[in-house]
Automatic annotation (TrEMBL):
<feature type="active site" description="Proton acceptor">
    <location>
        <position position="66"/>
    </location>
</feature>
<comment type="function">
    <text>Involved in the biosynthesis of the chorismate, which leads to the biosynthesis of aromatic amino acids. Catalyzes the reversible NADPH linked reduction of 3-dehydroshikimate (DHSA) to yield shikimate (SA).</text>
</comment>
<dbReference type="Pfam" id="PF18317">
    <property type="entry name" value="SDH_C"/>
</dbReference>
<feature type="domain" description="Quinate/shikimate 5-dehydrogenase/glutamyl-tRNA reductase">
    <location>
        <begin position="118"/>
        <end position="195"/>
    </location>
</feature>
<comment type="pathway">
    <text>Metabolic intermediate biosynthesis; chorismate biosynthesis; chorismate from D-erythrose 4-phosphate and phosphoenolpyruvate: step 4/7.</text>
</comment>
<feature type="binding site">
    <location>
        <position position="103"/>
    </location>
    <ligand>
        <name>shikimate</name>
    </ligand>
</feature>
<feature type="binding site">
    <location>
        <position position="241"/>
    </location>
    <ligand>
        <name>NADP(+)</name>
    </ligand>
</feature>
<feature type="domain" description="SDH C-terminal">
    <location>
        <begin position="241"/>
        <end position="270"/>
    </location>
</feature>
<dbReference type="InterPro" id="IPR011342">
    <property type="entry name" value="Shikimate_DH"/>
</dbReference>
<dbReference type="InterPro" id="IPR036291">
    <property type="entry name" value="NAD(P)-bd_dom_sf"/>
</dbReference>
<dbReference type="InterPro" id="IPR046346">
    <property type="entry name" value="Aminoacid_DH-like_N_sf"/>
</dbReference>
<dbReference type="GO" id="GO:0004764">
    <property type="term" value="F:shikimate 3-dehydrogenase (NADP+) activity"/>
</dbReference>
<dbReference type="InterPro" id="IPR041121">
    <property type="entry name" value="SDH_C"/>
</dbReference>
<keyword id="KW-0028">Amino-acid biosynthesis</keyword>
<dbReference type="InterPro" id="IPR006151">
    <property type="entry name" value="Shikm_DH/Glu-tRNA_Rdtase"/>
</dbReference>
<feature type="binding site">
    <location>
        <position position="62"/>
    </location>
    <ligand>
        <name>shikimate</name>
    </ligand>
</feature>
<comment type="subunit">
    <text>Homodimer.</text>
</comment>
Length: 275
């Protein structure tokens, strides 16, 4: 069968194999989709072997390898270049690798289509300015948010991201220390890695307006802290990144197989499993 994989470290609990097999069943496609644990030191060589020797057609890439995946590719989409990271690698003819970043598009699709949020004209707060934040910032802006405020613990990274977007009338930064004094937002996206690292964020309740939607790019345990804060702050909606995970998988699947899978049933079954 066709060979696919997800690379991460750790990777044992990845949902990607299950998601891709569910998509493949929708079309009667036979594929092998493995979870490959590679340390940062071994990543480049493991990817090389997968694509050059093991017949790999495509791979998803997750923490902590998204920057390394971007660096290893021969060609890069605009979305990957803007983020400086890749979540999808695809083998091209002549052994070259192309890097994509579908995380931003996946987030916007999950927010607007699955959760029915209208982003246009709304004020959004992006927490974080690392790889995950860079992958979604342009997409939020392009989806029409009125104002995008980027706040990062280290202000320089937030300023660099806002400068790179280059829309000073609609995209600005504030200091993390000022979070209690910057009013409320319609949409708050947690793109920090605090949850993944087992650290809690101390955020003021004043950030969440009564109609606010709060979204954590992580899912499962890593999102619990932020979503608990959102509920305690009185936010109207609180979502984890499970829908984004399924959507970015669908983008990869379409790149590799030329067919767009239905994400609703796959999302529902994972959601019910309580991930
Ligand atoms: P990822 O690929 O998950 O984005 P990253 O590029 O290392 O990982 O970025 C991690 C992000 O989470 C950064 O914005 C980081 O803030 P700093 O730039 O100040 O390091 C943020 N972050 C991590 N732990 C945090 C914490 N405990 N509180 C606030 N922000 C945190």
């Amino acid at each position: 069968p066709l060979q696919f994989a997800v690379f991460g470290h750790p990777i044992a609990h990845s949902l990607s194999p299950q998601i891709h097999q569910a998509f493949a069943r929708q079309f009667g496609i036979a594929l092998e989709y493995r979870a490959i644990d590679a340390t940062p030191e071994a990543f480049a060589e493991t990817v090389q072997r997968f694509f050059q020797e093991e017949g790999g057609r495509g791979a998803n890439v997750t923490l902590p390898h998204k920057s390394a995946a971007f660096a290893q590719a021969d060609e890069r989409t605009q979305a990957a270049t803007r983020a400086g990271t890749a979540n999808v690698l695809t083998s091209l003819a002549n052994g070259r690798l192309s890097a994509h970043n579908t995380d931003g598009a996946a987030l916007v699709r999950d927010l607007t289509e699955r959760h029915d949020l209208d982003l246009r004209g709304h004020d959004a707060l992006l927490l974080g300015a690392g790889g995950a934040a860079r992958a979604v910032a342009w997409s939020l802006f392009e989806a029409g948010v009125q104002n995008l405020t980027i706040v990062n613990r280290s202000p320089a990274a937030a300023d660099a991201l806002a400068d790179a977007i280059g829309e000073p009338a609609r995209v600005h930064t504030r200091y993390w220390e000022d979070l209690a004094n910057i009013g409320s937002f319609d949409l708050i996206v947690n793109a920090t890695s605090a949850g993944t690292l087992g650290k809690s964020l101390t955020l003021p309740f004043s950030l969440a307006g009564s109609r606010a939607a709060c979204y954590d790019l992580g899912y499962g345990k890593s999102a619990f802290g932020f979503l608990a804060w959102a509920h305690a702050a009185g936010a109207r909606y609180a979502y984890d990144g499970l829908g984004m995970l399924v959507e970015q998988a669908a983008d990869a699947f379409e790149l590799w197989h030329g067919q767009r899978p239905a994400t609703g049933p796959v999302y529902q079954s994972l959601h019910v499993q309580g991930t």
